[in-house]
Amino acid sequence: PWGASASMYQQWSDALPPEIEVLPIQLPGRQRRLQEKPFTDFASMIEVLADFLSPYLDQPFAFFGHSMGALIAFELAYVLEQQYNLKPRQLFLSGVVPPSDNTLLEKIASLSEAERLNYLLEISEIPESITKDSSLLNELMNIFKADFQLLQSYRYVDKKPLGCPISSFSGVDDYTVSDRQLSLWSEYTTSNLKIDRIPGKHMFMFLKDSQKLLLELISQELLPQLIAQ
After folding, report:
1. Class of 6-228 per CATH?
2. How far apart are CA 142 and CA 29, in angstroms?
3. What gap in Å lies between CA 25 and CA 28, rounded to an integer?
4. Residue 7 annotated among the catalytic residues of the structure
5. Backbone φ, ψ for residue 128 (5° rounding)
6. SS3 for 117?
7. According to the model, what pLDDT value does residue 5 have?
8. What angle do CA 31, 13, 171 make, to 5 degrees?
9. Comparing C-alpha atoms, which of 142, 155, 154 is closest to residue 113?
10. Residue 162 three-state SS
11. Is 11 helix (H, G, I), strand (E, B) or coil?
12. Average pLDDT over residues 19-42
C-alpha cells in the first residue's frame, strides 16, 4: 500500500491454507531496502518487476494489491499477459478505483505538501506509536513523498481487458472508493468481477476480523482453481 511495506503480508502465510503460498514483493526504499533508491517512474517500474518475476511464474499465481499496490498489480498483470503470455488466475484489487476514474490522485495533487502528508496520514490510519516517534515518522514521510512522485508519473493508457477474473475489495467506511467506481472494474476484464465491502476504513485489513474475512474470501476464490487444475 501507499507508504507501507511488504512486511504487512508476512502473517498471511499462517492464516491462509497451505496450498496458497504468500510471496510479498518489497519495493526499494522500504524497510530492509531502505537504502536503495525508490522507483520514480511507474511504467519503468512495471517493466522491471515483470522482467524480474516472469521466470518464477511457472506455477499458478495470483496478485493482491492494496491502494497504490493494486494499481501496480493491475498494470503488472497486463504486461505479463501481453508481453510474457503469463496470466494470473485471479487479480485481487483492494482499496482502489479503476485508473480511468481516479479522481483521488487529482485531489491529492491539488494540496500543498503539508496538507497532502496530513491527508495521507489520515487515510492510512497510522498508529500513534509511529506519529509520536520523530525518526519513524520522518522515514514514513519520505516514503509518502517518494510514492506520490511515483504515482504522479503514472499515465493510464487504454488497453484491452485482462483475461483473468478480478476481485475488488474496499472498506465499508472507505470514503475514497464508491460502489459505482468499484463496479467500473468490470470494464477491465473479459472474465468476472466480484465486489466485496469489508468492515473498516481504507486500511481495513489491519482490523483482525476484517483481515480474517478478507483472507477467507481470497481462499474461496483460489482453492477451487487449485483443486481443479
Report:
1. alpha beta
2. 9
3. 10
4. no
5. -60, -30
6. helix
7. 58
8. 80
9. 142
10. strand
11. coil
12. 86
Q: Map 51-79 to HEC letters.
A: HHHHHHCCCCCEEEEECHHHHHHHHHHHH
Helices (H), the chain: 12-15, 42-53, 68-83, 103-109, 113-124, 128-131, 134-152, 179-183, 208-228
**For the segment 125-174, what is each residue's pLDDT rounded down to a tens digit?**
777 777 778 887 787 788 888 888 888 899 998 999 999 999 999 999 99
| Contact call for residues 87 and 80 (beta carbons, < 8 A) | yes
User: What is the enclosing helix (H) or strand (E) of 92?
Assistant: strand 90-94
| Straight-line distance from the first to the last Cα atom of the chain, in angstroms, rounded to the nearest whole number | 31
User: Domain map of the chain by residue range?
Assistant: 6-228
- Catalytic residue chosen out of the listed positions 7, 13, 67, 134: 67
Please determine, for residue 209, whether its predicted confidence score (pLDDT) is greater than 80: yes
Beta-bridge partner residues of 193: 166
User: How far apart (Å, rounded) are the C-alpha atoms in residues 85 and 78?
Assistant: 10
Q: Give helix 134-152 / helix 113-124 axis angle, nearest 10°.
A: 110
pLDDT digits (tens, 9 = 90+) for 74-120: 999 999 999 999 999 999 999 999 988 767 777 777 888 778 777 87
**CA-to-CA separations, 36 to 20, 27, 30, 82, in angstroms, rounded:** 30, 9, 8, 29
Say what the pTM is.
0.90
